[in-house]
Structure formats: C-alpha cells, structure tokens
Design goal:
This is 6-carboxy-5,6,7,8-tetrahydropterin synthase. It catalyses: 7,8-dihydroneopterin 3'-triphosphate + H2O = 6-carboxy-5,6,7,8-tetrahydropterin + triphosphate + acetaldehyde + 2 H(+). Pfam families: PTPS (PF01242). By secondary structure, the chain is α+β, with helices and mostly antiparallel strands. Strands 3-1-2-4-5 form a 5-stranded mixed sheet. A hairpin with a 2-residue loop joins β4 and β5. α2 crosses α4. The chain is elongated. The termini are far apart. About 15% of the residues are buried.
Length: about 160
Amino acid sequence: MEFKIPEKVQTFNVDIKKEELKYHNRRVAVTKEFTFDAAHHLHHYEGKCKNLHGHTYKLVITISGYVDEVGIAVDFGDIKRIYKEVIDSKLDHRYLNEVLPNMNTTAENMIVWIWEQLDERLEAEGLKKLGHRLEELVLYETPTSYATLKREWMVD
C-alpha cells in the first residue's frame, strides 16, 4: 500500500455541502469509557470484600440516538460532561458506603443506581425527547469482573 499526503483538504460548501453531512436516518449507539477510584466494603458477606478495600472502577456507557444534521448521534463531549457531573463528582475517591443510598455496594447494585442517575440527567436535559437513550452500562470492579445492565432489563 502506498501512503501519500492529500493534495487538497476538503472544504465545506465547496467540496461538501451541508445537506451531505447527514448520511442516514438510523439509530446509532456510541460508547465512552471512564474510570474512578473508590473504597467500599460489603455487609453480610463472608469473603475478602467484607473488609474495607478499594477499586479502580471502569464504567462503559453506551447511549444511542439518531444522527443530527451534521451526522452526530450523541456527542462524546456531552457523555463526558454528564458522567463528570452526575457520577464522577459523587463517587470518585469516595467511600461508597457513605455516598450511595443504603445498599450493599456490589457492582450489581451500583450499576442500577448509576443507570438511574444518568437516565434522569438525559431526561432533565431534554436529550430523551431528541431520541437519546441509554442502551447499556458495564461496570468493571476489577479488570476481569464486571456487571452489565441493558436497556431492556430496566423496562418494568
């Protein structure tokens, strides 16, 4: 394969028109990953997690939507901002047993709480009215252990 430098950079309204930016009318999901560090322990559990300890959690957020006039379904910057304001600000470098509602701070419990927080923010910002919706969350407690939550599982 031969590599070459483009002779000309594409110019808006010369080489491509505004009506060409949106290629389709399909729902598309975008995914962004984040990490946060937190400590916790489990109640009524006989195992290592009974003791106070910490994790570097990884949260994988998938949100879908329909592309807008420039071809963007969900802006990665919006996902980052919402995550920082709604999740990171409450959980990063915190003692989860103190900042989460009364629950055992398992990945299975935490992921539902995280879903509820993100879903409320999508509603509050009017993004759900635009067709945006959470599709899936994955919360890693360790690099090989995680909980998954899908949109269809949250429907009552």
